[in-house]
Amino acid sequence: MKKHITLGIVCLARKTYDWEAAADIYKGILEAVKKIEAVTWEIVPELVISVEEGRDAALQLAKAHVDGVVCISGTFHLGHLVLELRRENPVPFLLWGLPELPYNGGKIRLNSVCGLNLNASNLYKSGVRDYHASVQNTIDGDWVGAVRILAALKRAKIGIAGFRADGFFNVGVQDNQLFGAMGALVDHYELDEIYRQSVSGGEISARKEQLQKTFDVGGISAEQLGSVASLSAKLHSFYRERNLDALAIRCWPEFARDFGVAPCAAMSLLQSEGMILACEGDIDGAVSMIAHQAIGAETPFLFDFSQVDFDEDCALFWHCGVAPCNLWDGTCQRSLDTYFAGGKGVTADFVLKDGELSVLRIDSALGEYRIFQQKARAVPMEKLLRGTYMKARFDRPVKEVLDLIIDNGFAHHSSVVYGDYLGPVKIFAKFKGWKITE
C-alpha cells in the first residue's frame, strides 16, 4: 500500500498571457490528480496572479501541513510567487511547466516553460535544492513517489530487537544520524520481549493452519511447527502493539538457542502480509524496504548478493529462508526445513518467481548516507538449494554491478521488489543531496 501524503497544488499566471486558457487547463489537471491514490489534495482553486494572492495561497497550504507543493506555471508569472510559497512551505516542490499551445495571432500564449525556468533559478539561487522540474501534460508520478518516500521515512518508527548480528559491523547505524538524515526513530527491544509476547491459543492455532496450507511441513517436527506458529503470532502481535513500521531482528546466534527455532520461516510468512522485517539487525536494510513500500512496491525483502556467474552473466540473490512466501514461483515445492543452527533453523525453502526487479540499498558510511540501486530481472531456475533465492540478470554485465558494490563498500543486504521503482528513488536522492550509485 502506498504511503498516504498531503499535497498542495497551485497554478501561477499573469494576465499579459492567455490566462483564461491556463485556467481551463488547470481545471482539467485538478480533475485528473484527484484520481491519484493515497493523496489528500489541498487545492488553491483559482489562478494565483498577484503577490497578495501568492501570500494567501502559501498560508493556505502551510495550514494544511502539506508534504509537497505542485507549482504549475500556467503562464509566465511574477517571480515573487514561488518564493512566497516556499517561505511558508519548506517542502519539496514540483515545478510543472505546460507544453506551449498553438500560436494565436503570432503571440506566445502561455510562455510556461520560461515561468518554470524563472522559478527554478529563484529557488536554486536561494539555496533550495529539493525541487524537481518537468514539462508535460500530466503530473510527474515519480515526484509524487519521491515525496511518499520522504514522508514515510520522516514518520517511521523502526524497532530493533537485540542488536545487529554478530560480526555484522557493516549494517550498524548511528541512531541520531539516522534521525537527522531522515526523521526516522529507532526503538530498542530485547529479544526476550518477543519470546514473552502474550498471544492466545487461537492465534497460534490459526498460524499453524496457515503454515500447513502454505508449506510442505514434512521436513520439520510437530514441535518445531508449533514453535514457528507461536513465533509468527508473537511477532505479529509485538509489531502491531508497538505501532512499528519495520522491525530489524538479531536473528542469530541466540534466537534458535533461546526460543527453539530461528525466525526465518515466521518472517517469510509475515512479510507476505506486508510487515517489514529485516534480518540480522539491519536497520538501513529496513529503511530501504520502507522506501520501496512507500511507493507501492509489494512485500519488499532483503537478500544477499550471494554468487556471481561471469560466464552466464547472472547473480544469485539468496537468503536463508526469509523471502515473502507469496513471491514463490508457483512451480517448485514450498517447504520448511531445518538445515542450519543445529537443526533449529526452520527456514522457508523455495525459488522466487521470475519478473522485473528493482534493487535498493539506502546505506550509511563515514557519517553520510548514499544510495545503491539497480534494475534486474529474475529468470526461471530449478530448486537446487535450501533457503529462498532467485537467479537475476542485470541490464549491464554482472561484474560491473559487483564492482560498484565492492568498490563503494555497500553492505551485503539490499531490498528487492518486483517492478520498476527506480524513478522515484532518483528524485528522492536529489532532494536529499545524496550520491546515487546505479
Structure notes:
The chain is an alpha/beta fold. The chain folds into two domains: 5-139, Rossmann fold; 153-437, L-fucose Isomerase, Chain A, domain 2, CATH 3.40.275.10. It is built from 14 helices and 18 strands. It has helices at residues 19-33, 51-63, 80-88, 112-125, 141-154, 175-182, 191-195, 201-214, 222-241, 254-259, 264-271, 283-294, 398-407, 422-432; strands at 5-12, 39-43, 68-73, 93-97, 131-135, 157-161, 185-189, 246-249, 277-278, 301-309, 314-319, 335-337, 347-351, 355-365, 368-379, 388-394, 413-418, 436-437. The strands form three sheets. A six-stranded antiparallel β-barrel has the order 10-11-16-15-14-17. Strand 14 and strand 15 (368-379) form a beta hairpin. The longest helix is centred in the middle third of the chain and has 20 residues, at 222-241. The chain is elongated and about 80 Å long.
